[in-house]
Design goal:
CATH topology of one domain: Multidrug-efflux Transporter Regulator, Chain: A, Domain 2
Structural class: mainly alpha
CATH architecture of one domain: Orthogonal Bundle
Largest sheet: 3 strands, antiparallel
Shape: elongated
Mean pLDDT: 75
Distance between the termini: 46 Å
Radius of gyration: 16 Å
Length: about 100
């Protein structure tokens, strides 16, 4: 049994968003949601988690990741502070500086 209905045509994204919102109410977000918050690719989010920049929960046979939303927001805020304090455009610890 699936939480979303793949046969509903144009409502797929809407259903997916509702499922994601339900999960984020619990404090955890998907890789896609974390990537959107950080402004990077999903693969980058996973790589950063593997590097220990923030924590992730990995589960299931497919290795699905979930991230604590508050920790991602904190990481983003710290990254923005570091970038705003540096003339060189960052040190690679956070999301890319769009001025490059």
């Amino acid at each position: 049994m699936s939480m979303t209905s793949s046969h509903m045509g144009s409502n797929n994204g809407e259903n997916h968003d509702r499922v994601g919102a339900a999960r984020s109410d619990q404090g955890y977000i998907t890789t896609r949601q974390a990537a959107a918050l950080l402004g990077v690719n999903r693969a980058t989010v996973i790589n950063w988690a593997r590097q220990g920049r923030f924590n992730a929960i990995q589960y299931g046979a497919r290795g699905i990741y979930r991230f604590e939303r508050a920790e991602i927001v904190e990481f983003l805020d710290k990254s923005r502070l570091q970038q705003s304090g540096e003339d060189s455009g960052g040190n690679g610890d956070g999301p890319p500086n769009s001025s490059h």
